[in-house]
Every structure is written in structure tokens, then in C-alpha cells.
Design a protein that fits this description.
Blueprint lengths: L2 E4 L2 E4 L3 H12 L4 E4 L4 H6 L5 E2 L1 H9 L4 H6 L1 E3 L1 E6 L2 E6 H4 L5 E3 L2 H14 L3 E3 L3 E6 L7 E6 L2 E6 L2 E4 L17 E17 L8 E4 L5 E7 L2 E8 L10 H12 L10 E16 L2 E2 L2 E3 L5 E2 L7 H22 L3 H4 L1 H23 L7 H16 L1 H12 L5
Parallel strand pairs: 1-12, 2-3, 2-13, 3-9, 6-15, 13-20
Antiparallel strand pairs: 4-8, 5-8, 6-7, 10-11, 11-12, 14-17, 14-18, 15-16, 16-17, 18-21, 19-20
Length: 394
């Protein structure tokens, strides 16, 4: 007989979406159990996105998990768009009424959330196997899994699928329910993590004839840099010297110096846009990368996942307080309005800053005109700033 457990909300996936949802539910007096197939050590060491919107920062602070973020995170009030060898600053603080972003790596966010869940008696089960979801079209959904050799069954009122693009929750829904919207981009990002002080106080997005480049950072001593490349680029063909040389070329600007250092990590990431509609079926609710993927140009992946679970936590609180399904029924509709606005912004940033293989001289001149307009028009700059720091929650 399997080991039987009971909770109110079963959460598949201990990434940002799953852990933020679990802690939000705890703060609202709702029980949850989080199931994760990877180890805690893996999730807390894997280097991922590191740009937090103002709303994400505010939420983590309100949840009581923002102390280390406040002391170690790097607060930025703008970014630089660089093209034609010249930089143009977009002033977030002035354009959005004082808002900004915080550079704080995703794995650091996960450490804070894991510590908070443990300190409050939360159940986060790592290194589980053979996870499957069942009966979510009825009133007693179940999550089955193996833990330490034991077969386990978790019965719950609702299941939150926070298990990422390659997770098991979305494919478990019967065919014909979901509509998939997908776009593959004809390029990827070659990313490096370097032991070098960042060469700028803010992120630099660069449009160059040889392709896009981005200067970002993870700490005062660690730089994160990216180069546009082919999606199937062989990273073994890129020596450290070649990478730095290409970064120097694309990021070059008069009177500015790129600081080099030891490359600690490098890899190639493909780029895609993806949305599934609706984001729910029965008592199964998808959140984060299980429901949508955005290209990283707009720095929205983690932030969009956090927005999803804010909406879901609010709907679950309403259900347990009133017995009404109204907010739960509207979960997809509310989330997708934000998702598609974020997809639009991420696509726009990507299409404005990257060289496309099939583009012609007209496309090139149009991109330069777009960049010129964004950096010379207050209205256009404000649109970029408002989206980058994060749209308001509904």
C-alpha cells in the first residue's frame, strides 16, 4: 500500500513559482506540500536569471524573505541601449515614478524561499521520482510519486503545476484541451559567468552588425555576459580568448573599457516564445514555465512566474474563505492578459536588438530607426521603462 498524505494544495516543482506559491499560501493559512524531483543543492546552485522587477522585489519583501536580497542585491534605476558605438540611458526612476529593478540571482531567491519554508514547518520534498498527477478533473486530485523507495500518494483539493516547460503536469491534461502558441527564434545566446567586476553600473543592451550582446552582472565581482549566436552553436569551438574578443568588438564604445576575467561557466541557450491556453483544467492550475516561455531579452521569466502564483494564491484564499470558485475560474483569463503583454514586450525587445538571418538592408535600417526613436522619444522610452520594471498587478 502506498504511503498516504493529505494537504490542501499539492505543488509540483520547487522552482520560484512553486516555492513562492507555497509560502504565500502559508501566510494565508493554507496548507501545501511541494514535490520536486531534483535535489535542493542542484536548485540552489544552478545559475539562472537574475533581474527582479519592482513588484517581485516588493512581494518577496512583504513575504518576509527579502532581507538578504535587500542587503546583497544590486538596485538599478536604468539600462543602457548601445548602438552605433554610442550608449543611451533609459532612466527608469524618472520615467516610472521611482521604480527600478534588482539584480539578485534566481538560485539566491530559491535559497531564501527554501530557508523560509523550513523555518515555518513547510513540506518541500526533494529528490522524488516517478511523479504523476491524477483525478484533477474531480474533487480529490492526487499526486503519486516515489520517495526513498516508498510509493506515496498525496491527496489534495487542488494541484499547482509549477514544474517547468519539460514537466509532467501540462502533458497530463487530455489532448484537445490546450491550444499551444509557439515561436522558435533563429538564434541563441552564448552566455558566460566571469570572475570580473562589472564594467558598468547598469545593464547594457547592444545592437551590433555582428549581432546582439548584453552586459549584465550577478554581484560586484561577478559579470554575466551574452553574445547572439546560432541556436546550435558548438560551445567547444569558442575559446575564452575568442569570447572576450567578440564581446570587446560588439560592446565597444568610445571612452569605455570592458573588464575581462576568468570565465567560470559558459553555455549556449536557445530562444523561444511559448504560451498554452487555458492555464488550467479542472483542479489543475499551471504556473510559470509550465504555461509559458519568453525569450530572455526582456528579463521576464521568473517575474512572470511570480505574477502567476500571486493571482493563484489570491484565488485559493478566496475559495477557502468563501467557498466561491469565481476567482479560480478566472485564473487563466487574468494571467493570460499579463502573459501576452509580457510576450509582446519580450518579442519587441528581441526583434529590435538582434540580427535575423533572413533580414535585408531595409530591416537593418528599420531597427536602427526603432532604437533611435526609443532613445529620443520620452513616450517611447517610458513604454520600455514601464514594461521593464514590471506592469502593475490586476
Amino acid at each position: 500500500m502506498p504511503v498516504s498524505l493529505r494537504t490542501q494544495v499539492g505543488i509540483v516543482g520547487a522552482g520560484p513559482a512553486g516555492l513562492v506559491l507555497s509560502h504565500l499560501l502559508y501566510l494565508k493559512g493554507i496548507d501545501s506540500v511541494v514535490i520536486e524531483n531534483r535535489s535542493r543543492q542542484y536548485s540552489e546552485q544552478r545559475v539562472r536569471a537574475g533581474v527582479l522587477e519592482q513588484g517581485t522585489v516588493d512581494l518577496l519583501t512583504q513575504m518576509g524573505v527579502g532581507e538578504r536580497m535587500k542587503s546583497e542585491g544590486l538596485v538599478h534605476h536604468g539600462i543602457e541601449l548601445r548602438f552605433g558605438g554610442r550608449g543611451h540611458r533609459i532612466d527608469f526612476q524618472e520615467l516610472t515614478g521611482g521604480k527600478g529593478i534588482t539584480i539578485y540571482a534566481q538560485h539566491e531567491v530559491l535559497k531564501d524561499l527554501n530557508n523560509a519554508r523550513i523555518a515555518t514547518g513547510g513540506q518541500v520534498l526533494f529528490e522524488v521520482e516517478d511523479v504523476s498527477v491524477h483525478d484533477f478533473d474531480g474533487d480529490q486530485p492526487k499526486i503519486r510519486y516515489q520517495k526513498d523507495g516508498d510509493a506515496c500518494e498525496l491527496t489534495c483539493d487542488f494541484i499547482a503545476g509549477c514544474d517547468g516547460f519539460h514537466g509532467i503536469c501540462r502533458p497530463s491534461v487530455p489532448s484537445g484541451i490546450f491550444t499551444h502558441y509557439d515561436r522558435e527564434y533563429p538564434f541563441g545566446w552564448l552566455g558566460i559567468l566571469a570572475e570580473a567586476p562589472p564594467s558598468s553600473n547598469e545593464l547594457i543592451y547592444t545592437y551590433h552588425d555582428r549581432g546582439f550582446a548584453l552586459l549584465s552582472m550577478r554581484s560586484p565581482n561577478i559579470s554575466r555576459l551574452y553574445l547572439q549566436c546560432r541556436p546550435d552553436e558548438n560551445i567547444d569551438l569558442w575559446s575564452d580568448e575568442t569570447i572576450w574578443q567578440e564581446l570587446q568588438t560588439r560592446l565597444a564604445s568610445n571612452g569605455w573599457t570592458l573588464t575581462e576575467g576568468k570565465i567560470l561557466q559558459k553555455g549556449v541557450t536557445g530562444m523561444r516564445s511559448f504560451v498554452v491556453e487555458p492555464m488550467q483544467y479542472g483542479r489543475l492550475f499551471l504556473a510559470g514555465d509550465s504555461a509559458h516561455i519568453v525569450p530572455p531579452t526582456g528579463a521576464k521569466g521568473l517575474n512572470l512566474a511570480v505574477a502567476d502564483v500571486q493571482i493563484l494564491a489570491r484565488a485559493l484564499k478566496h475559495f477557502y474563505s468563501t467557498g466561491s470558485y469565481d476567482l479560480l475560474h478566472n485564473y487563466s483569463e487574468v494571467c493570460l492578459r499579463r502573459v501576452w503583454k509580457v510576450q509582446r514586450f519580450s518579442w519587441w525587445m528581441t526583434s529590435m536588438l538582434h540580427r535575423f538571418p533572413e533580414e535585408n538592408p531595409f530591416d537593418h535600417r528599420r531597427q536602427l530607426a526603432e532604437l533611435d526613436y526609443v532613445t529620443s522619444s520620452r513616450a517611447a522610452a517610458k513604454t520600455l521603462a514601464e514594461n521593464y520594471v514590471g506592469l502593475p498587478m490586476e
